[in-house]
Amino acid sequence: MNITRLLRHLATTSIGTHRAFPASALRSIEQAIAASEASHAGELRFVVEGALDTLPLLRGQTAPQRAIELFAQLHVWDTACNTGVLIYVLLADHRVEIVADRGIHAKAGAEAWSAICRGMESQFSAGEFGSGAVHGIKAVTSLLTRHFPLQPGDRNELPDAPLVL
């Protein structure tokens, strides 16, 4: 167990999470997702988590593992055309993870997702949480527009509002 990581998670409070992502930033993220989904057949979900609960933390759960867990729990995988994308932010670890449904992942590839994540992390480290999130959503939008153009009859299957855990 990494004691530094444990202390970081214990010190990350909901107040700090709401400071990083105030209501105005959450509205901007929601608007960016709505605009994004109007241009492609993908479905985006944005989740911010301040810190892991104690038990998963003690078990050594990583940000990628938690992102996959949330991808399943939030049914991001359960879209009609397998075009769900989860953008997950774990503030205590300073990590961003993107989990994409198999249909999208096969076309975009792990390198593209990693580049978007690192770009968001860079902006977050400069304290630019809202604009960093919107920038990441726009980068995901670019990939989805290229590989999954909007289809007739496409409907919004997942909430656009970001989820703060």
UniProtKB/TrEMBL annotation:
Gene3D superfamilies: 3.10.310.50. Residues 24-141 form the TPM domain. InterPro entries: TPM_dom. It comes from the Bacteria. PANTHER family: BLL7265 PROTEIN, UPF0603 PROTEIN YGCG. This is TPM domain-containing protein. It comes from Piscinibacter gummiphilus.
